[in-house]
């Protein structure tokens, strides 16, 4: 199968429009996007993208989400410095979900953990499987 | 940090109720759930869970989703035989997304691919990064 190199950033308008035309955004104009660390495969977070946030991500190579709580573009890392550099992306068979392959600078989670998925259930109840990272 | 063993299946009602009480289901009563192959880290699919589908998954150890298109429980593998055996699960910092660590039997995708995330954009346009698996 085709294993050509990922597109470099910024993507051309032609490639962006081609992609946007293939995706099925929901009634809010959003898609769920999974961020996975590109080299070790760790799932870092799940967030939402609008057409505009996806377009910006593909123009800049740095991931921009849509914040549902703030109803605004969410340039991840803008305040924390913990940017997600986009390496490539995939869309699924129904074209209604994205998998972002990223290089995460520092923690992805606002709790200062590498991944947002740190909660698990054990015999003794809910536990946290990772601790907040120490800042340098 | 605590690294106790995952709970075995079926989970107790106490553990299930504890978990359900911690999660923030959306206005439809659903949560997005990422399925990741537990050993090699491949992201297989994104689907949706209701309280009932999550409860069934934790009782049986086999993943059951909520089909939004059919508005019904979706016992994955029931028709295809391609079951997802649940190994563990995580929830995120906002308690509004799940990460399912699964052992996928055969392809996860209805197109007979291992993962649903097989579409990518390249210089020449959209490409498929994997081919359908051959049935044994």
Overview of the molecule:
Two copies of one chain form a homodimer. By secondary structure, the first copy, chain A, is α+β, with helices and mostly antiparallel strands. Chain A has a domain at 13-106: Roll (Ubiquitin-like (UB roll)). The first copy, chain A, is 15% helix and 35% strand. Chain A is built from two helices and eight strands; from the N terminus they run H-E-E-H-E-E-E-E-E-E. In chain A, the strands form three sheets. Chain A has a four-stranded mixed sheet with strand order 2-1-6-5, covered by helices on one side. A two-stranded antiparallel ribbon of chain A has the order 3-4. In chain A, a hairpin with a 5-residue loop joins strand 1 (30-37) and strand 2. The longest helix of chain A is centred in the first third of the chain and has 10 residues, at 13-22. Chain A starts with 12 loop residues before the first helix and ends in an 8-residue tail after the last strand. The mean pLDDT of chain A is 95. At the A-B interface, helix 1, strand 1, strand 2, strand 5 and strand 7 of A face helix 1, strand 1, strand 2, strand 5 and strand 7 of B.
